[in-house]
Design brief:
It contains 18 helices and 8 strands. It is mainly alpha-helical and 479 residues long. The protein has 4 domains: 48 residues; 94 residues, DNA polymerase, domain 1 (Orthogonal Bundle); 181 residues, Intergrase catalytic core (hpI Integrase, Chain A, Orthogonal Bundle), CATH 1.10.443; 84 residues, no CATH class.
Length: 479
């Protein structure tokens, strides 16, 4: 009588189709017993798969209750994980990425058999089809998040999406408005109904959703504080008020004196519109006490704010930038004003100071030139500096020598006249316009007076030299 095999040892048999089947019983991740079946073209192949699977189980890697297709698991992940734990906007983005890209491209593959070459080929095909690098990065990010969840649920042993490679994306250089451009825009847009929104964008660097999600209860006029607590976003086919993305985004900002006057005037105008609308405002059912609303108090679309912004730029001939670049401009201005990075981070609502440094403090040409000139002053010999330095001091020297020659000529003339030089020389009479027969005392008095006048002129000349020195453009400040 043959010896009975221990429970879980497994068995290998040949099927009618010629393949070999290895089977053994194991406890799954749900705690239930399941019969696992593995197949191979030869008995040795089936036996190898059996040994490999049993080794994983013995090392503590449980088996799943069922074999997941990637598409089925992505749907499960969206409904049970993302929808229950993430913001509606995050769910909408993940759902769209799964529906448009991942399910059609990889949905039919087995979750356990997903490999790095398969995912890499899929991403390469996206790029070849004309999709942008940021789009491919979003697809990989969503797939990686789903596979990480599968790893936590012990359905797979590694996240193959993290091992794929995509080209580095280099965004276009952002050239935000300088302070004068922003000041000009705010000056010419005062008559626009959304002027208070523009003020919040440029003074506080609020995001579009933060501006449109601001409520009157978030503005404390008594203590002069603006509480940024929520944002307005389009999710699917509706506008929804939701929490901010990060804890750092929930911040309190000082309500400045000119801003509170502007907001109070906007509030009075909104109250008049509300009274004029009457029941239509209340029947809309969308009155959330928002600071900026569309018709009858309904939430305002971000596109409405963007169109108003670009309309002002077009009408007044202002260089067109993105409305989000107002945050870039504020970050740069804070840097120019010497505001510490930590304070700029708090004002802009960034989670990390590196974000403030990398994306919102664009280099200034003047600061860069000043820094390099300091380096050059330390490392370069004086004679190798810009020739403008030599030319500058040469001009100053020429001015000084000119006044010295004039002073010397005057002294020689006076001396020759007093000494009574021969015919043809200048005399005190010619200089002073007096008769040569005047008395010696009168001559001395006139000469002394003339000397005093010339001394004053000489002093004036010295002052002129100083003015010439200061007026000459210094090479250290030359652009």
């Amino acid at each position: 009588m043959p010896r009975r095999k221990p429970n879980g040892e497994g068995s290998i048999s040949r099927r009618k189709d010629g393949r070999y089947e290895a089977a053994f019983s194991v406890t799954t991740i749900s705690g239930k017993r399941k019969r696992v079946r593995l197949y191979g073209r030869t008995r040795a192949e089936a036996h190898e798969k059996l040994i490999e699977t049993k080794a994983k189980v013995q090392q503590g890697t449980p088996l799943a209750d069922k074999t997941w297709k990637l598409g089925d698991y992505l749907n499960y992940w969206l409904e049970e994980v993302v929808k229950a734990n993430k913001r509606p906007a995050t769910y909408a983005q993940c759902e769209q990425t799964v529906r448009l890209y991942l399910t059609p491209g990889l949905g039919k593959l087995s979750l356990a058999k997903l490999s790095v070459p398969i995912v890499q080929q899929f991403l390469n095909q996206m790029l070849s089809a004309g999709h942008s690098i940021p789009k491919a990065q979003v697809v990989r990010k969503v797939l990686s998040a789903a596979l990480s969840c599968a790893m936590r649920e012990e359905l797979i042993s590694r996240n193959v999406a993290r091992l794929t490679i995509l080209p580095t994306y280099e965004p276009d250089d952002v050239e935000p408005w300088a302070a004068e451009e922003a000041k000009h825009f705010l000056a010419v847009s005062q008559s626009d109904p959304l002027y208070p929104a523009f003020v919040l964008l440029f003074i506080y660097g609020l995001r579009r959703g933060e501006v449109l999600g601001l409520r009157w209860c978030d503005i404390d006029f008594e203590h002069n504080v603006i509480h940024v607590r929520q944002q307005l976003q389009r999710v699917g086919h509706s506008l929804q008020l939701g929490l901010l993305k990060t804890k750092a985004g929930r911040r309190d900002l000082a309500l400045l004196y000119p801003v509170d006057r502007i907001l109070l005037e906007h509030q009075r105008r909104q109250v008049r519109e509300k009274q004029a609308a009457g029941n239509a405002w209340l029947e809309s059912g969308d009155d959330e006490g928002l600071v900026f609303t569309a018709e009858h108090g309904k939430p305002m679309e971000a596109s409405t704010l963007v169109r108003a912004f670009h309309r002002v730029c077009r009408v007044h001939g202002i260089r067109r930038v993105r409305i989000h670049d107002a945050r870039d401009g504020l970050g740069t201005l804070l840097d120019v004003l010497g505001v510490p990075v930590k304070q700029a981070q708090i004002i802009l609502g960034h989670s990390r100071a590196t974000t403030t440094l990398q994306y919102y403090q664009h280099g200034q040409a003047e600061k860069q030139r000043a820094s390099l000139e300091q380096v050059g002053a330390v490392l370069l010999p004086a004679k190798q500096k810009d020739d403008s330095t030599v030319q500058y001091y040469r001009r100053v020297g020429d001015c000084c020598r000119h006044f010295c020659r004039q002073a010397s000529l005057f002294i020689d003339t006076i001396t020759t006249s007093i000494s009574g030089a021969g015919e043809g020389t200048l005399t005190p009479g010619l200089i002073l316009g007096k008769s040569i027969n005047a008395s010696v005392s009168d001559r001395a008095t006139e000469v002394n007076r003339e000397l005093n006048d010339r001394r004053r002129q000489w002093l004036i000349g010295i002052v002129a030299v100083n003015i010439a020195v200061r007026s000459c453009p210094s090479p250290k400040t030359k652009n």
